[in-house]
User: Which sequence fits this backbone?
């Protein structure tokens, strides 16, 4: 299995994964941030499941009583990181920073799967391609995890 992380750190967080939703002009939810803070304090990794908008009615169509659906949207690793860094700059509890290690994944299990490890800042510049994407914010790394992730580090080839 190419994408496994050390089970003692990751398995504990599988039941404590967070969902990150798209921000809007008037809604910037951050309730998941507290779970990330707790995981980081405990040295655990956090699996971030990223928002998908499929068959969502537009606000205008709902106001008119007619269902017209918005085009499908899938959150990218890049958008998730931008939103996370915005929340951190607002909440300032030190859960992570632009220099924190994270792993962006896309289309896991498909022939075109992509796994890239780097700082959040580095991952902002990676093109992860087609959906679906997820993000892992690394907690304390076991030596085996660190060695394993070296093969997925950000390079000029995967940007």
Assistant:
């Amino acid at each position: 299995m190419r994408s496994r992380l050390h089970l003692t750190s990751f398995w504990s967080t599988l039941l404590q994964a967070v969902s990150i939703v798209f921000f809007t002009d008037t809604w910037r939810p951050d309730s998941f941030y507290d779970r990330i803070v707790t995981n980081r304090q405990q040295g655990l990794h956090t699996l971030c499941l990223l928002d998908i908008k499929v068959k969502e009615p537009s606000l205008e169509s709902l106001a008119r009583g007619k269902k017209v659906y918005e085009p499908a949207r899938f959150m990218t690793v890049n958008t998730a990181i931008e939103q996370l860094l915005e929340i951190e700059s607002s909440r300032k509890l030190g859960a992570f920073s632009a220099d924190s290690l994270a792993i962006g994944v896309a289309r896991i299990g498909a022939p075109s799967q992509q796994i890239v490890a780097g700082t959040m800042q580095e991952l902002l510049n990676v093109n992860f391609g087609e959906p679906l994407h997820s993000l892992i914010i690394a907690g304390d790394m076991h030596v085996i995890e660190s060695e394993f992730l070296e093969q997925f580090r950000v390079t000029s080839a995967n940007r």
Summary: The beta strands are 18-20, 46-50, 52-53, 73-74, 101-106, 114-119, 133-137.
